[in-house]
Design brief:
The chain is mainly α. It has one domain. The protein is 60% helix and 0% strand. The protein is built from seven helices and no strands.
Length: 98
């Protein structure tokens, strides 16, 4: 999402709808990991990466990672979309300004 937000001014397109970012969720679940890039998350969760850097390929990998995150989030007491969004906004990654 940060990449898209950085392009808002140039493109004139704003992303104001609620978003649940797997990068931010990863930073909550694995705060001590050096990276939360898609490939790193996929490796941690045992998700194969196929079709990287294509809309469909990235969407499928992201969805599979998200499904693997759900039980871990539930163990942390994060069980609703609202709770997940609130928790992700408290993460270090969400506070970084570029």
């Amino acid at each position: 999402m940060r990449f898209l937000q950085l392009q808002e001014k140039r493109t004139g397109v704003r992303f104001e709808q609620p978003v649940l970012d797997t990068l931010l969720l990863s930073s909550i679940l694995h705060p001590n990991q050096a990276t939360h890039q898609l490939e790193a998350m996929a490796e941690r969760f045992g998700v194969p990466v196929l079709g990287r850097h294509t809309a469909l390929g990235d969407a499928i990998v992201t969805a599979e990672i998200f499904l693997k995150m759900l039980p871990l989030l539930a163990e942390m007491g994060v069980k609703t979309l609202r709770q997940a969004r609130e928790a992700s906004q408290k993460s270090y990654q969400a506070r970084i300004r570029y």
